[in-house]
Amino acid sequence: MAALLRSRLTHWTVSVPVIAVVLLVLTWGRDLAGIVVAVVAALLAGAVLAAVHHAEVVAHKVGEPYGSLVLAVAVTVIEVALIVTLMISGGDKAQALARDTVFAAVMITCNGILGLSLLLGALRRRVAVFNPEGTGGALATVATLATLSLVVPSFTTSRPGPEFSPAQLAFAAVASLALYGLFVMVQTGRHRDYFLPVTSDGSIVDADGDGHADPPSTRTALASLALLLVSLIAVVGLAKGVSPAIESAVAAANLPQAFVGVVIALLVLLPETLAAARAARRDRVQISLNLALGSAMASIGLTIPAIAIASIWLDGPLLLGLGGTQLTLLALTTVTGVLTVVPGRATVLQGGVHLVLLAAFVFLAASP
Questions:
Q1: Separation between Cα atoms, residue 364 and residue 252, nearest integer Å
Q2: I need a labelling partner for 358 at 20 to 30 A (CA). Which of 108, 195, 208, 365 fits?
């Protein structure tokens, strides 16, 4: 029975991404009717679940922290491509798109995914345990990238408004790539053990596998990697396809236009959220935190260089600086994150605090 269930799940996780991509091709650039929107939404959810499955197969093959890195980078690369595409075709409405999307990603990952992971981990064994050295280094990198890219433009004077001059944007892009590259070297090289799951006494838990099954074959892992990319393309593409329906719903609810970016960011980050939640339920909170902070880091570290290059062809200003409310939320998230990470242990309280910060972000995005 178990083998039959695994077989059915395998067929399901192969067929749904393929069908989703076919539907994406058929619906790309078209206005969707109500029934088609419902079908797209259903396949979008299926593609998200398939992406999580294939990410876990790849992670089991390559081990941690490489598995978390694969999912974070794969999602972010496709997300960056979507942002740049929308910016090129969006006109004046796209001037703040990169800022809004990156900030939403930071808040969702650093409060939503992180808070949910800590909450689930603490509910499992009262206290969620993780490595403060690796998690603290990741949080410091996220805070530095976010400040250089999203905070500093609000205070520079070379250009009117919250934007960089070309030289400043180039510096921010190079600094972002350098910091992200340095972090990846540390995470996968000399200090790899800082990013592996730990027990309450600080010892590493099963660094080479999940402790329940042998790693998949190389052929299976490569197939899952290909299907992971197909699933993520389907997720981002279908999310863009349903965005006009989301925009209509947002307008009908008298919500700000920027709230559309929050909804799309939530959809795009669903694979990482589900993967992090499943890892936390298996008492692998460190893997969940790797996903959360790694996704935030990749979102900034890859988006800023991409839009710096795209700005050569873009007309009009590129607004990157955050407003007062957003700056306050980012500062509170950073301070709270530091207090959460330093002990290397967290209870349901810390998880709840971060989830409340996410709720505050979503509420204030809807009601600024």
A1: 18
A2: 195
